[in-house]
Amino acid sequence: MITIIGAGIGGLTTALAFEKLGIEYHVYEKAPELKEIGAGIWMPPNALQVIEWINPSILKDLQLHGNSIDRITLADLQLNPISDTDQNFAKEQFGFSTIAIHRGKLQYLLLKNIPKEKITMGKAFKSYTSLSDQKIEIVFEDGTQTTTTYLIGSDGIHSKIRHQLFPKSRLRYSGQTCWRGVAAYEMNPTFDHNGIEMWGNQLRFGISRLQKNQVYWFAVALSEPNLKDDTVFLKDKLIDLFSDFHEEVIQLIKHTPTDKIIRTDLNDLKILKTWHHHNICLIGDAAHGMTPNLGQGGSQAIEDAYYLSNLIASQKDIIQAFSEFYRLRSKKVNSIVSQSWNMGKIGNMRYGSRIRNFMLKNVPSSKLKKQMISLYSIDKTISNK
Ligand SMILES: Cc1cc2nc3c(=O)[nH]c(=O)nc-3n(C[C@H](O)[C@H](O)[C@H](O)COP(=O)(O)OP(=O)(O)OC[C@H]3O[C@@H](n4cnc5c(N)ncnc54)[C@H](O)[C@@H]3O)c2cc1C
């Protein structure tokens, strides 16, 4: 039996991949239910290829409930394009362009395809004890226990399993905080299928339509860590902060319920030298938490599900599969972690934003295409189903 802790994007897709390949598993999630919380999320072609492999009908659901992003545009604060990555290229190469979807909807569409008896909600992992080579005892916060042969930690960037497995692991604060929301607003239809990130001076603002009258936005600013907002003044504060930005930005903030605006300090995880020890393995943000600047954290968790499940299905020795999983995945993932970190530093740089924008405008499209290929490719040969 393999026990998965955490029913986020990584845990849910791993469960679905195990389901497809006939691998025995059970998932425990601390939240009593997965509500429509969160804001939007971009699912790029690498994630969509895995979802299609898991179950084409889930992909259809995502396409139905999300919005196809046909251009990803980096723009200045007045929405003038700096650079543009044409997703048609991705479509030709990989079959898909990016989909923007509500995060709660994504999780719901994944969850509904997992048999109810294989997931226990409202069970928070507390600690584990290795009883023997083949037996791990798991203790939950409510005092109950269970045993398992293998344990997968998909419990997110603040993973308790990782804290116990690798107590020296550390998060790295980027110096940036991010507010996210979903506005009940119809933007100028020119932007219907555009994913936009606007770079100003020490500030960034991202926009993408999710559905009719639903626009996802995120706003990134430099900040001390762990600050809380006074909800009474939050919208005014954001409007003030982004007052130099295009009027659409101000409208989006105005059309978002204050209590639905989420603030997250942007951290990544200092790169780990391994993601497993014996019969315990980390995946997703627990293994390789990254800043969201490339929109790849969730997608990399989904890729983890693909590689790990196929390795387990083909290897018999699951501990060997855990080692092989790190060997196959770490190069790409670690490179994305550092590219994402650097992108955030450039995006919110304190000085020289004009020179930065000028240089970005002149990045050859061949370079952007090369980056898309390295981000969006998955190895199809490891799957035999
Ligand atoms: C502002 C922002 C924007 C982002 N945008 C994108 C994007 O556009 N595209 C993209 O691909 N990625 C994006 N990401 C990254 C993405 O959200 C994460 O990489 C992704 O959620 C990681 O999935 P995960 O399953 O590893 O962890 P999570 O999604 O964090 O899931 C962890 C799960 O474990 C559960 N859990 C935690 N502790 C316990 C416990 N003790 N016991 C039981 N359960 C537990 C949690 O409740 C949760 O359900 C963004 C991140 C941020 C912060």
Automatic annotation (TrEMBL):
All copies of domain FAD-binding, residue ranges: 3-313
UniProt-listed SUPFAM superfamilies: FAD/NAD(P)-binding domain
GO MF entries: FAD binding; oxidoreductase activity
Cofactor names: FAD
Source taxon at top rank: Bacteria
Gene3D superfamilies associated with the record: FAD/NAD(P)-binding domain
Annotated keywords: FAD, Flavoprotein, Oxidoreductase
Pfam family, one: FAD_binding_3
Protein's UniProt name: Zeaxanthin epoxidase
Lineage: Bacteria, Pseudomonadati, Bacteroidota, Flavobacteriia, Flavobacteriales
